[in-house]
Amino acid sequence: MKNYEEQLKVLNNLFLSTQEAIDSLGVSKQCFHSLVARGKIQKIRKGSAVLYYADEIKERKQQQPWLRQKYRPFQDG
């Protein structure tokens, strides 16, 4: 059982579900799926499961202020 718990911990550190990724980025579902469709965020499929790389989501979140300033300079913060 311990091995299973360790594997689950590793999985949770490496990957996010769709809802976890949306919540982490603080964007709408429509915006998130647009990012995926345009190849800005990579998805991983295993059967019916769809996961996203946690590191990629964290990196995107760090870039958001810069991207928002670049593409929406008329909007405050």
From TrEMBL:
InterPro entries recorded: HTH_17
Highest taxon, organism lineage: Bacteria
Domain Helix-turn-helix intervals: 15-64
A Pfam match: HTH_17
Protein name: Helix-turn-helix domain-containing protein
Organism of derivation: Listeria booriae
